[in-house]
Structure formats: structure tokens, C-alpha cells
Amino acid sequence: MATQRILDFLATRRPDGPCLVVDLDVVHDNYRAFEKALPDSKIFYAVKANPAPEILKLLANLGSSFDTASVAEIEMALDAGATPDRISFGNTIKKERDVARAFELGVRLFAVDCVEEVEKVARAAPGARVFCRVLTDGAGAEWPLSRKFGCVPAMAVDVLRSAKVLGLDPYGVSFHVGSQQTDLSAWDRALDDARFVFQTLAEEGIVLKMVNMGGGFPTRYLRDVPAAQAYGQAIFTALRKHFGNRLPETIIEPGRGMVGNAGVIKSEVVLVSKKSEDDDVRWVYLDIGKFGGLAETMDEAIRYPLVTKHDGGETAPCVLAGPTCDSADVLYEKTPYPLPISLTIGDEVLIEGTGAYTTTYASVAFNGFEPLRAYVI
Amino acid sequence: MATQRILDFLATRRPDGPCLVVDLDVVHDNYRAFEKALPDSKIFYAVKANPAPEILKLLANLGSSFDTASVAEIEMALDAGATPDRISFGNTIKKERDVARAFELGVRLFAVDCVEEVEKVARAAPGARVFCRVLTDGAGAEWPLSRKFGCVPAMAVDVLRSAKVLGLDPYGVSFHVGSQQTDLSAWDRALDDARFVFQTLAEEGIVLKMVNMGGGFPTRYLRDVPAAQAYGQAIFTALRKHFGNRLPETIIEPGRGMVGNAGVIKSEVVLVSKKSEDDDVRWVYLDIGKFGGLAETMDEAIRYPLVTKHDGGETAPCVLAGPTCDSADVLYEKTPYPLPISLTIGDEVLIEGTGAYTTTYASVAFNGFEPLRAYVI
Q1: How many independent structural domains does chain A possess?
Q2: How far is A245 from chain B (nearest CA, A)?
Q3: Does residue A372 share a domain with residue A357?
Q4: What pLDDT, in 10s, does the model give residues A105-128?
Q5: Which one of A13, A119, B42, B176 is CB 3.0 to 4.6 Å from B214, fit for a cystine?
Q6: Which family does it belong to (chains A, B) (predicted)?
Q7: Cβ of B371 under 8 Å from any chain A Cβ?
Q8: Which domain, by its residues, includes A166?
């Protein structure tokens, strides 16, 4: 997944310290693949996945809309050339003053998942469109989403009804099937919930128009994942099944699926050691860890592919850890990572599939280490 | 633990958004308490706990030395007025070029835990003092340290012997009993390991001089912890027991114990909601979460005391979560947090005991949210 352009950049520029390199050509291809797989859905890129200005600008030019989590992300999308009608304030947890600021900037589409949030939007963004997020069970996802966002479908009906009462435009329903979702039937189950909300409200004369199918589109880490086309087919089939000929507008919010495989982190082996002469497992310490951008290794949830110049040689299991004095800064320990026996101090390690959810997760200065630098090429 | 000075600052300045306020008077008192409890130990403040320049300057003036994790932290300590002989490069995972830079800056004391690291120090910092970190089991600690740092005592003997062979000064042994250690006998067990290394090397004519007893001194969160005096007494007793009348030089490295209780984070309730009408547990969303500075709530390890203006009224269990669109950004869920029933959107929540390991953990810009601001008063 390290493209030739990325390899050439690293070979020529030889940046010191850990860094992320993102290949815009891959982002471009991913955008086209989503367009092709789901030609009737609007693409709202999840800015939080990687808000690099070059990425936002490319996607704005390609016609993408943007799913944002904060006023700062709205401003980034605007700076990249997106008009406010292409921006959704997709965070269900918003300060009322942030809703007001978004409204002032022209944003008219807001996520909610409870009556309390509807009330804020009604006060601070009168007349705006709202969509209600529905809880899904997250089964099949590598990183299920807990119950933090959304409400049960029956409550979503109440939420959207209250939006109508308060003068807002009850626009639709959203869900998120969980990150790195590889079970295609997850969309089917969620769309059945969406249909329930549409149908119940239709009986009261409230006609919803949109289904926001969220993200969850996986990027390729160590295992192959169904390609975008397969996702598109499964989703289209489920839409037909639940909505028949009256298909709603649909939105998708790829983040990881748009940029994950476009980025590679270059790191360096700082130390290889054992804790005891009797240990079978070596400890390999990199110059990047959980607090330097690899937060998604939490609970060893995401297992990035690693590339070294010794690949192909004999391997042995390693515990992989970051460079800080924090004992929690260990990447893979429960399931040790097989790495070449000849791997040694000073060697370069490429961490693939790291275009999403890395740079912005990096800590400001933990242990004095600077945040992850990024080059978008 | 919110001192009157902190409360006055917040009342007068009314900073917008989440922020940490640290009271230097508390840091001052903590330093004096450590001095009094362990009058024969040198205090090396663990800079990573909170590297705010005002804190480093205060401690430098009080006579503190500094335990550092990186070249940047060494430079911060120097900027605060510490001379290089009061600085230890305490990270066992160092790039050789960083060792060289530290040596250039005058640092002569380095942590190691394997022969490979000794070789780097020998090349880049010839003649320097090294101490070898020994693994402890971490029993009794709220946040045990895994096996990331240190080696077994038998291997520490080899490591320090190799330091001697390579022209370094094998200076001593270090250990860390685990963070928030409340079992006073943990120091006793670790000091027994230290004695083993001292004694074994003494038989070969290598005379170690120093025991670095690390950190682990707890700060008061929800439970009372033995006061500094009790720690001092227990440690002194263990030293006598294992080293008799030939007490080594000793170093302690308090971080959390020095600044944890000196800081309070001011946050705001963004949303209070339920996921279903039938839920017993409310979700309370704050404007700060795991990626905004409260990383130590990972696995609900540390349970910070929360203060609201409704305290004293009836409470009910809440799931407490942060403001980002990340489902992992939940602070307390497995063990819900009892909070006043009357707590509502817009209320201020003070998060106490947050002077350590908060600001520097904050992510650069996750979801577009700015890092945690800090005021040191």
C-alpha cells in the first residue's frame, strides 16, 4: 500500500523522525470508487478522519460534501472551497453556541439523537434540517461504536416529531454500522430500523426524505475486505428491500474508507531487547506509539501492516511498543507481531493503512515528543 | 481540592471552553512534603507529568532535579534554570542521536535496561553514569506498568557489567512500583531486588552507588492514600533492612504525586440524554474527554472526583463521555458515575486531581477541538 510516489518521496526527502505521507492519487481513486459503487448517494467525507487542507481541497474539487464534528472542522471545509450547503454538522453532542456559529456560517443540516439536542438546534438554527441518529448493535465491526451515539428507533420517532413541533425540518435518519464493518448485512439491519422510523412518522403526516448511512467502510489492513462495489451492491439491495420504489435520498460518510489506505507512516526502530535471557519474545520499540498518532491500536483493535527491508526472512513474535515513558504505550502485546529476526536498531518500519485517524489523534507534546508530522503529496 | 485561588481565578477570568488551572502553592507544598518525608533522597521531578514552564521554574528554584523522557524535556528543564547535573535522561528507549544531543547539553546520567541501550550510551555519551531499571510486578498499583520498562534482576547484573566494560560508570539501579501505588510493601520487594544487583556486582568489584526509587507516589483521587510521611517511613525502613548501614544514594521521581492534586479542570456539560425512554442510566457529555486530556480514564483506570454546584442533592448513575464523534471517547461506563439528578446542559463540572498527565496527553486537534489550555497561577 506504500505507493511508488510515497516511496519516492521518502527516498528523496528522507524526513527525520516519524511522519505520515499521504498520496492524493489514492484519495482521488477512492472517491471515484465510492461514486461508482453508490452512484445515487451523496458523499460526505468525514473530516475527522484526516483534515489535511490538501485532502479537503481535492475532495471539494471532486464534488464531495463534508461531515463535520466541530465549528473548526466546518471552517476547514469552507476554507477548502465547500459551500455551506455541502456541510453537515454531524456531531450529536454540540454546544448551543457552536450550533449558532455553524448556522451563522450557513450550515443547515444537523445531527441529533435526543429531544434536548433538538431544542438547542431549534433555538440556535431555526428552520434547519435535522436527522436523528439511530443506535445500531455494531456486530461485525472491528471497532463497535458502543452506545455513545444515537437512540433506539422508537425514541427517534419522538425526537423527529419534536423537531417538527419546534419548527425544524425533520429530514431523515442516520446510523453508523461500526468502524471497519465487514458484515454486509449490518446495513440491511440498520436500514430496516430506518424504514420503521420513516413509516411511523409518515402515518402522522411527517415525511422524512433522507437516510444517512454513515461510515464504517473498511480500509484494507491485514485482511482483505469486500471491495467498494460489493458494499454498494449490498446497500442498494437493502434499500430496495426496505423502501421499495420510494427510495430516500442517501448520504454516506466515508472517512477511513476514503483516506486510510492512502497514507503510510515512516518510523524507525529505536530499540530491540529482551527482559530476560529466557524470553522468547523480543520487545521492539518504535519512535511512534499510541500517543504519537497510533491511538487506534487501543485494545489492539486495529492491526496495521508493517513493512521492513528484511521482509521475507525468518520472523519471530515481537511485542511492539512506542517510545514514551508510559507503560500503556504498547501497540501489540496480547497478540505479538511476527517481525523479521534480522530487524535491528535504526531500521525503517513503514506502517501502512495509516492515512486516517492518526495525525489528529497525536498528543500535543507527551513526553516532549512533537506531534506526528504529515506530508500530503 | 479546588483551592480558593483556583476558584477565584475561574470566577474572575471565566475562561471559555475546557481548561486546566494549576495552583503553584500546592506544588510548593508537595515538594516540601517530599523533602520532609525522604530527607536523604534527591527529588527528580518527572517532567512528563506536567512540563508547564511555571512549574519547572518553581521546582528548579526549590532545588529539585529533573527526570526527563526526551531531548525536548531536557531543554525545558534547562530553560527553567536547572543545571545539567540535575537532569536525568530517564527514558530507557532513546535514539542514539538523542543520547548524543543530551550529552552535548551536559547530561551525564542515563537510564538503561538492556545491553543494546548501554552500547548506544557508551558510543554517544562516553564515561556517563548509567542506572539499570529492574522490572517490578506492579502489584498494588492502580495502573501497573506492564513489562515495558526494565529487565529481570539477573539481567540487570549483566547490563551494568557491560556498562563497566564499555567505559561507562555503572551507577545504580532503578525501579518503578507502578502508578498510584498504595501498597507500601511494594517498595520493600523492589529494594530487595536492588540489593541483589548491588551485592552480586560488589562481589565482582563493581560498586554501585545509587538506587532510583522512581515514582508511583499517589495523588488523592477518590480514595485517601497514605500520606507522604507514611511512604517515607516505609521506604526508609526497607532501605535499612536491605542495605543496613551502607545506605546508597537514593533518588525519587514523583510526577503525579507532585502536581496531580494541584490542578483542576473546568468543564461544561454539553448534553444530558437517554438512549431510550426505559433507560435507568443517563448519558452526560462533557466538553472534554479522552482525547482532550483525560487519557488516563483509559479502562476507567483513574476515577477523578467531580464537583458540581448541585452536590449534596439526590444522585443517579451516569455514563460520562467526551464531546468527540469517537465512540471510544467515553470516560466512565462500566462503573457509572453517580451525579446529581439536577445536573443539566451548560452546568460547570470541576474535575479534580488533574494537574498531572492531562495537558500533554491532549490530542493536537482531534475532531477539530483545540488542545487543553492550561493556566498556572
Answers
A1: 2
A2: 31
A3: yes
A4: 999 999 999 999 999 999 999 999
A5: B176
A6: Belongs to the Orn/Lys/Arg decarboxylase class-II family.
A7: yes
A8: 90-254
